Amino acid sequence: MDCLLQSYPEKERKQILQLVKELQLSPATVSSRLEVLSQEVERNLKKELQDCLAFSITLDESTDIGDAAQLCIWMRYVSSSFEVKEELLFVSPLLQRTQGSDILKNFLDSVEKFELNLDKLASCITDGAAAMTGHQAGFIGLLLKHLGWTIPAFHCIIHQQSLCSKLKSTDELEEVMSHVVKIVDLIHSKPLQHRQFRALLEEIEANYSDIPYFSNVQWLSRGAVLQRFVDLLQPIHDFLKEKGKKDLLGKLENEVWLCDLFFLNDLTRHLNDLNLQGNQSINQSLFIKRKSAKLSKRC
């Protein structure tokens, strides 16, 4: 480009270069560049995974907005320079069924694509779905049969958080979450009612301008909704009292129910923090403590 513009004066040359820089690339060019970048990232990841010392996998199957089942595979591995890294390995649609055999096939396809050595596989983490954890037809059971040896299989800790507040044997916790969701849904049920609640929060200069919906699909939603509910407990109480919702208001004036609410909120908040803050350092710290305890017993 500089050679082509040598005959132009300095000022005009700068203007031409600026105009060239501002030109928008065509969709085909953008797509081509993204494809080249994607291939380069994949090539580098493939090389790192082939040279790694050990790795573990995390799998999750979920349905997107278009009702298509998507399988995501993450990897945590120890590189040849002894660095612990995490990468998204593969996102693959499950076109028909979502059984353990289908998940295993997609996983083995990604293993073949990245030329992974399964001898280096140290552990596997999944959710609690039967298609994942089943000993016979689930992914874990089929994977162990395919490997021919046993590896540790763990339950995702965020799912454990969800299960903590869904324990059927703990009716109090189940009832607390159910009542909180009922109140949140009431606030959002009508546009006018929702606007009035937000206006109340603005009037009292609350720290938050709204309370979010609860979503069962979003694992961290339970802790987020409970924390916001507790923080806005007094405004919510006043709003229900103003609307004459005595059936919902009674729980908020019951000290025993409030204790259960605060307990469930603390439980989910701590589990959320455990997932969101340095998971790598936490896991390494737990591993070191566990090893130290074993060594001290031997001594």
From TrEMBL:
<feature type="domain" description="DUF4371">
    <location>
        <begin position="26"/>
        <end position="136"/>
    </location>
</feature>
<dbReference type="InterPro" id="IPR025398">
    <property type="entry name" value="DUF4371"/>
</dbReference>
<dbReference type="Pfam" id="PF14291">
    <property type="entry name" value="DUF4371"/>
</dbReference>
<protein>
    <recommendedName>
        <fullName>DUF4371 domain-containing protein</fullName>
    </recommendedName>
</protein>
<dbReference type="InterPro" id="IPR012337">
    <property type="entry name" value="RNaseH-like_sf"/>
</dbReference>
